[in-house]
Amino acid sequence: MKLNLDLAAGINVITGHGDGFLKINGERHEGSLLVGPKLLDPAWGKPSMEALTADDFAALALLEAGITLIGTGRRQRFPSPSLLRPLIEAQRGFEIMDTAAACRTYNILAAEGRSVIAALIVESVV
């Protein structure tokens, strides 16, 4: 079955993902990024979960999204609680999942009009 996304709603939609890339509204991005319904920041983050710092998570806490999805790359990995402290202290809801699951979840929540951002790690192809 062919599915067509309604991009006329004026929000950012993740239209594809794979090894080393994401597509937002059909535009290819190679590297980790932050996406929200009205936000696209390809400068956010690092190329791997291990490279993330508390400052990266503090930047997420400042965005005041109702829920923050953290896509950890090809597989689900949990950051240390000390890295998550800025989100916890700001009382932000967050979910940790692999990047593919975060992409799917983001699209559903954004289409529902929810206040959501997705911080997505895109691991480079080796």
From TrEMBL:
In the record, which residues are listed under signal peptide? Answer: none
Instruction: Please indicate which superkingdom the organism of origin belongs to.
Output: Bacteria
Q: Name one Pfam family in it.
A: DUF498
Q: Which InterPro entries match?
A: MTH938-like_sf, NDUFAF3/AAMDC
For this protein, the record's PANTHER family field holds: NADH DEHYDROGENASE [UBIQUINONE] 1 ALPHA SUBCOMPLEX ASSEMBLY FACTOR 3, NUCLEAR PROTEIN E3-3
- Please give the name of this protein: Xcc1710-like domain-containing protein
Q: Which organism is it from?
A: Niveibacterium umoris
